[in-house]
What does this fold into?
Amino acid sequence: MKKFKDMLKRLATSNQVLKIFSLIAAFFLWLVIVYATDDSYSRTITGVPIQWEQPASLTRQELNIISVEPQSTTLTVVGKRYIVMDLAPEDFSLTLQLGNIINTGTQRVNILNNTDSGDYLIQSISPGQVSVQVDHVDTKILDIEANITGVRLAEGYIKDEEIVTPGTVEVTGPVSELSRVERAVVSADIGRTLSAAESVSGEIVLLDANGNDVRSENLSMSYETADVAISVLKRRQVPVGIEFTNTPPFFPLSKLEYTFSNDTIEIAGPAMLVDNYESITLGYVDMKTLGPGARQVFDVALPSNFVNVNNILSVSVSFDTDEFETRTFPIPEVSLVNVPGGYDVSVGAGGVSPREVTLVGPREVLEGMTSEDLVAQVDFSGREREMAAGQIRMPVTIFAPARGTVWAYGDYVTIVDIEEE
It folds into this structure.
């Protein structure tokens, strides 16, 4: 302990040690004087932000500030060292002199210093101006197109329409830039074989009239991406057919010969539905309107999710009736069938109109026929609600039950008297 005290005593009385402590004390004293009294310390501060707001004068003219470049600047600041050294870019308030702008285009605008800088001096602002783009803002609505590549189809399949969702996009921006935009496209590469529907997503890209990309921070879109549903359909040949109305009782439809302009139609649709689609019913033939040499044309109608591959829009039906002719016969007595209970019915005094029936059939069959081969009926089936005392106009069905392919051409009616029992 004594040795330690002796060492401290020697250090305290040593001239060399005292000199070192003096130098250190002098240095710190110099620092204090410099920081406290130096008013001319200069410092460069970069990245100082420039603040601005849309002036009302531009809004009244329906003009908008589109861009300001650059959005920050560099300051040279002079002042007390300890104050200047503590400054940050956010401590300054710089604005733009926008009140004089009245036209569209890119213009140079002065940067204004609004900083309360009593303790220091802003010696310079570099750059002291910015470029301000002013323009009208508008919106353009574009259909979104699909550009799908690399699709290979399995045998027996076709690619149908490509459905884009959403179907349109709103593009908003300065008129000078918006005028360049002509198309909106979403692209995707599939790169594989498809036998069923496929859905892909992609970025919406804006293009000009020449197909070049239009990219700008000043343009905004209501959607950035879109989905594309690729419809892949199975092909199949399907026979066509017709149905008949007002067919006489006992009429042998299988013996009525006719031909189609197209016996089959190639269709395409979802595989599961196409496999169960056995035939296409073109429509109905009314036997009452079918005369010798008849030819009827039917539009081809398919379900909404089917495609008519060869675009056959109509099919004609020609009836093989070269050996057929028409002949008139007196109408036999009318029989009333399926009369509801509680009523007494009879054919009115006027009989049937017209009074003769026109029959269509093979020439040799008609030549051997008489009125006795015919049956004339008024059928009350399903007429229960119409039954009431008085008279009612009813259709008359006329047929030849034992004469094969013979039928009545035209409409026949009679007045029926109804009495309650």
About this structure: DSSP finds seven helices and 29 strands in the chain. The chain has a mean pLDDT of 90. The CA atoms of residues 79 and 120 lie 4 Å apart.
